[in-house]
Amino acid sequence: MPSSWLLIENGTVVDGAGSPASASTSVLVEGNRIVRVGPEATADAVPRGEPLTRIDATGKTVMPGLIDAHCHMTYGESRTEEEIDLYTSPELRTLKAAFHAQKVLRAGVTGISQPGGSYFIGVGLREAIKDRIVQGPRMTSAGRYISTSNSLTDWYPDSVGVPEGSIGILANTVDGMKDEVRRQVKNGVDLIKLADSPYGDYQAFTDDEMKIVADLAHQLGKKVTIHARGSAEVDAAVRAGIDWIMHGNVMSDETIERLARSGRPLVPTLLLLANVADYGARVGAPAPLRDGMKRMLDKTGDSLHRAHEAGVRMVLGTDTGFSVAPYGEWHARELELLMDYAGLSALEAIQAGTQHGALMLGLDGEIGVIAPGMIADIIVVDGDPVKDIRVLQDKRRIETVIQDGRVVVFDEAALARHWPHERGQAYSVTDLTYDLVHGGSGAPGNGDLPELDASDARDLVADLQHREASARTD
Ligand SMILES: [Zn+2]
């Protein structure tokens, strides 16, 4: 059977492995693999009569597609944890995830890993993408986060418990944890996600529990990762043999040393924090949340600079899936944040967003680099990301997305769609007291009330109405 060929001609190649950019370089793809890069990559190498697609990349950058190792496809751009866990049916959540996957791919993200989500939607979506039922990035997925009563995801009072639709599953005993690992592996996950304490101030798992989960996952041929924001959890995760670590916001020098020595990658996932801190005010994020994220970000910057100097390998992850980090919007901003908050160079940041993510896709050494033998997930960018990393954030500059050696064709008009949020229970973003309206005891008087108009979407209720109205006029 004849191969199909793709020749990307005369671009500036940024290989994703950290090498300096290489100007006027062509890339030849046969089937789904890169076969030649450089002077040998010409149409002469293609057997006569076999189909060849040519892309002129003169003045453009040719680089591997981005890999986002922390992308939650089941969250559906939720504004609240309740919306994530309670208000969307599994059926609608699955369909939304399938739609959103296209947006992620359109942004030049050709690979994602979902470290936790509700039901086994991630597994189904992964298979549908692989079988080309759905257009989206290649994907690996965890199931529900394994949580204790002291972890992230056990948000609600015990009278409610952790609902069936939750992104987490409660397991307070070693037996419960092992049962859940076995059940998730049976249902097709690629990795197990552990949920440690929300803000990193204590360990939610004992060392033994963590090690038993990691050992069982490995015995069954799967990977394991963890939400770990503090030094103690990162340390415990390294001791337990967790494959890669999410966050690592506050780490001592000793922890960083041990992490670096272990060779285990860190996925800092700065984007969610930075989006809330920098832009949250524009979409009604409460001030205490914005301030908290800003403080966390500053501490993280200190830890990450030290970690980078110590040689810890960093990977692009964004926590995309919340209303403040919608699908296909901000993935590449993480690269800019890794430069600002960890001190990476542009080439190192690109490597964090390409080569280093291959492990999370289960394709280490096979993807994320422009070199002969590698899988051909490639983007052609109008701009020079080595000079200005921010060009990758503007989707209009992601001119061509190539997945498995094929140029992806998008339905751009369909991708522009948003729809109303699921119902929420918010009445306002603050208390409507007498003094707030009429003044007194230092509260702002009537004239000082903030302008809350629907088009600004500053307030949660107005935001909901605004989005419903704009969805109707689509
Ligand atoms: Zn996450």
From TrEMBL:
Transmembrane residue ranges: none
Any matching Pfam family: Amidohydro_1
Amidohydrolase-related domain location: 61-408
UniProt-recorded name of the protein: Amidohydrolase family protein
Organism, as annotated: Pseudonocardia acidicola
